[in-house]
Design a protein that fits this description.
This protein is an alpha/beta fold. It contains seven helices and 23 strands. It has two domains: 202 residues, 3-Layer(bba) Sandwich (FAD/NAD(P)-binding domain); 124 residues, FAD/NAD(P)-binding domain (3-Layer(bba) Sandwich), CATH 3.50.50.60. Helix 5 links the parallel strand 13 and strand 14. Helix 1 packs parallel to helix 3 and helix 4 crosses helix 5. The site of flavin-adenine dinucleotide has 38 residues, from helix 1, strand 3, helix 2, strand 11 and helix 6.
Length: 336
């Protein structure tokens, strides 16, 4: 059992900054995230894009902002449970909560702050009946480490930037033994220069490009061995492969949190904008995941929400203590 003062669900920018603000009040945080790395949308969707509306930074790459937030919170030694979605919450007799992750990790805290953003990112999967049987046995929906595909025959499916860019990367750098790119249409949604590059690589025989086709079947004994492709004109095509990587994007959903008894409006958690508390005492919601009148889904607004929420959390955890605002310029950062 991991025990902490504040359990933060979500390691996006808002969750990370909240660790810092909680630390200034001597409250310890542990964070849980379904993604394998911290940073939420900034790391997962747009790490190389510059953000122009973070106060004090005329421009900062989203990935750099996350690095800075990690460094800023480091003195307060937050704990992390990564790669595990929070699926269950149980209120205890002492009013604390036990939050359980999908892999069974248990976290106990008097305060839970949901900084879940758009929710858990789930891959869009192709409608192949037995696809789950081959997950982690030759079928992956995200490429985490390109070297994993060294000398392997891979079918990549999709028509967006992800499918195009990974096909180019794995083929051009001669990482994979063979790349077969399968796409339902003749036209792609990705950047024009990436599309042109794929066509050039296909013309040179470096990528096998199969368009107007879909992977409709996967076969194998203990792991993936073959994919069955249905071509609009040529009919069935079978390829022997080591990996099938459908890159159809990630779709966010509030997921299990939607069933925790919280008041939900249009997929977001309703909060009191005085302190971002929810209808369940002890549970707060901050950042993109919450809603109230005039809500703006901006990072800087989430920072403000986290700051006020920890002040409220402090008085819940220490009802007998008065918290006096102290400037960091005066007090510095007294880590744990
Ligand atoms: C392309 C793009 C550009 C943007 N540009 C700007 C900009 O210029 N300026 C700006 O202010 N904002 C911008 N935004 C919006 C900004 O990224 C969000 O406002 C911000 O990421 C919200 O932070 P967050 O911490 O609330 O949530 P998120 O960043 O969404 O992080 C939430 C985290 O919670 C995790 N999570 C959710 N549910 C669970 C669960 N049940 N268990 C475990 N983990 C869970 C998710 O995996 C995720 O990592 C942009 C967004 C996009 C997509």
């Amino acid at each position: 059992m991991i025990e902490t003062d504040i359990l933060i669900i979500g390691t996006g920018p808002v969750g990370l900054f909240t660790v810092f603000e909680a630390g200034l009040l001597k409250l310890k945080c542990h964070l849980i995230d379904s993604l394998p790395q911290p940073g939420g949308q900034c790391s997962e969707i747009y790490p190389k894009k510059p953000i122009y509306d973070i106060p004090g930074f005329p421009s900062i790459l989203a990935g750099e902002l996350i690095d800075n937030l990690m460094a800023q919170s480091a003195p307060f030694k937050p704990g992390f449970t990564l790669g595990e979605a929070a699926v269950k919450i149980e209120k205890q007799a002492d009013n604390s909560f036990i939050v359980t992750g999908v892999k069974g990790t248990k976290h106990k805290a008097p305060i839970v702050m949901i900084a879940g953003g758009l929710g858990v990112f789930e891959p869009r999967k192709p409608p192949i009946e037995n696809i789950t049987a081959f997950e982690e046995k030759g079928i992956e929906y995200i490429i985490k480490d390109p070297e994993f595909y060294k000398d392997k025959t891979c079918v990549i499916a999709g028509g967006g930037d992800s499918a195009l860019d990974w096909s180019i990367f794995l083929a051009e750098r001669k990482i994979a033994k063979k790349i077969i790119l399968v796409h339902r249409n003749n036209s792609f949604r990705g950047h024009l220069d990436s599309v042109q590059k794929v066509i050039d690589l296909a013309d040179r025989g470096i990528i096998e490009l199969i368009t107007e086709a879909e992977v409709v079947g996967v076969e194998g004994k203990n792991s993936l061995e073959k994919v069955v492709i249905s071509h609009q004109k040529q009919g069935e095509i079978v390829r022997e492969v080591d990996h099938f990587i459908p890159l159809f994007g990630l779709k966010p959903s509030l997921g299990p949190i939607a069933d925790w008894g919280l008041e939900i409006e249009k997929g977001a958690i309703v909060v009191n904008p005085l302190d971002y508390s929810t209808n369940i005492p002890g549970i707060y919601a901050i950042g993109d995941v919450n809603t109230y009148t005039n809500k703006l889904k901006l990072i800087l607004c989430g920072f403000h929400e986290g700051t006020l929420a920890v002040q409220s959390a402090f008085s819940k955890i220490h009802p007998d203590k008065k918290n006096i605002l102290k400037y960091t310029t005066v007090n510095g950062v007294q880590g744990f």
